[in-house]
Amino acid sequence: MRKTYFFYSILMVAFVFFLMQCADSKTNILEADIPDASMAAYHTDQYVWEKMARSFQIRTESPKNLDWELWPTTTYAYSDPCSSVAWPSDSLIWKLNTPKGLAMLANLKNNTTETTRFELLTLNFSNPYYEELRINKVMFDYIQEMGLYNQNTVYKLAKAGKINFPEKAMMIKAQWMPVDSSQVGKYYTKIIDGTDIYTGESTGYTLMGMVGFHLVTHELPNWVWSTFEYKGNPGMCDYIGCKDKFGNTQAFIPKNDTINLGYSQIGGPSKALLDLFDEFNVPDVFQNYRLKGSQTEYTDNKGDTLILGNSILEMNLVPSSSCISCHARATLNNRPGDRKNLLMFDLSAG
Asked: How far is 210 from 312, CA to CA, in rounded Å?
C-alpha cells in the first residue's frame, strides 16, 4: 500500500511539475514584450543594445526609415500648450506648416532623393551639429493623457509627486553633421532638409551623417541611460574610456592621454551583436557605431561617482557629465526668462 501511495505521489509531483513547465512556457511567450527590469539592472549593456536593435530596425523601404525615425519629436508632443495632440499620421503632418510643424513631416520622397525633415538644433561651433529628440508612443501618450504639454500642469503634478512615466517609455536623441558622398556607408546618412530653430533658416537638402545618439528608457526608477558614438569620432573615448560588455569584442577601450586624436584599437561588433542585428534587420552601417557606456545609478558598487557623456552631444562637459545627475538637477520655475545658459550653448557668447 505504501509503495503504491509513494508511486502515485511521485506521478502527481511529476504531473504538477509538467503543468508548471507548460505554464511557464506560455507565460514566457505572453510576456515576451514585458519590460525586463532584471536585464536592465544586471546586464545593462545587453539590454540597451536589444532596445537599440528593436528601434533601429528598418520599418519602411521607400524611403528607408528606421522604427524610431517614425516617432514624433518632442517639439510636436509639446506643440499645443492648451490641448493634447494626436499621434501623427500623414494627413495630420501635412497640415503643419510652421517651422516646428515642418520638423514633424515624417519622411518625404521625390524622384531622386530620400529626404527627412527634422527639427534640428545648430550650436555655435565652427562645425555645426544638428540634433533631434524623438519619443515612442508610450511616452507620447503619457504626455498627452497627463497634460504634460502644459507648464502649469507639470508644475502642479510634479509638486504632488504624480509624474511617473510608464516603464516602456523611451526616447532617442540623435546628433547629425553635414557629410559628403564619400562618407556614405561609413555613417548612417540621410538627405535632410533641416530647420535652425534659432533663425528659422533651412539647411536646404543636405547629406548628413549620424555622429552619435542617446537611448533612454524608463525600465528602472532612475531610468536607463546609454550613449553611442560613430567609431571615427576623434574624441569617442576621451576622458572616461568606452565600456561595453555585450556588443564589442573589446569590452573596455581606455582613454587617450591627449584628446581628439581618434582611436584605432576599438574592437569590433561581437557575434552576439551581429546576431541581434540580423534578427531585427538593423542596417549593416550600424556596425560602425560603438556603445560608449550605460548608466542606471549615481555611483558604482564601490561608491565612486559614475560618469557618462558623449563626445559630440556633451562636448567638453564629458569629464564631469553624468546622465542621471544632470537630469536630476532639473527644477521647476514659473518665472519666464529666468534661465542661465552654459557658455558653450550661449549663442550670444564670443
From this structure: 11
CB atoms within 10 A of CB 251: 14
Comparing CA positions, the residue from 193, 209, 232, 217 lying closest to residue 105 is 193
- CA–CA dist 121, 302 (Å, integer): 38
Q: Which backbone phi and psi does 318 adopt, to 5 degrees? A: -55, -45
Q: Work out whether the CA dihedral 299, 300, 303, 305 comes out positive or negative.
A: negative
In one-letter notation, the amino acid at residue 341 is N
- And the C-alpha cell for 217? 528608457
Q: Compute the residue count for the chain.
A: 350
Rg (CA), the chain: 23
Dump pLDDT digits (tens) for 61-86: 877 889 999 999 888 899 999 999 99
Can you say whether the dihedral through the CA atoms of 213, 214, 219, 224 is positive or negative? Answer: positive
For the residues of 13-77, what is the DSSP string, one character each? HHHHHHHHHHHHHHHHHHTTTS--HHHHHHSHHHHHHHHHHHHTSEEEETTEEEGGGGSPBHHHH
Write down the residue that cell numbers 525633415 correspond to.
117
CB atoms near residue 42 (< 10 Å): 11
Q: What pTM was estimated for this model as a whole? A: 0.76
CB 65 within 8 A of CB 55: no
Residue 116 CA from chain centroid, whole number: 18
- List all residues 6 or more positions away from 339 whose beta carbon is below 8 Å from its beta carbon: 333
Q: pLDDT digit string (tens) for 223-234? A: 999 999 999 999
φ, ψ for residue 296, nearest 5 deg? -130, -10
β-strand pairing of 119-120 with 189-196: parallel
Domain boundaries, the chain: 36-345
CB atoms within 10 A of CB 233: 21
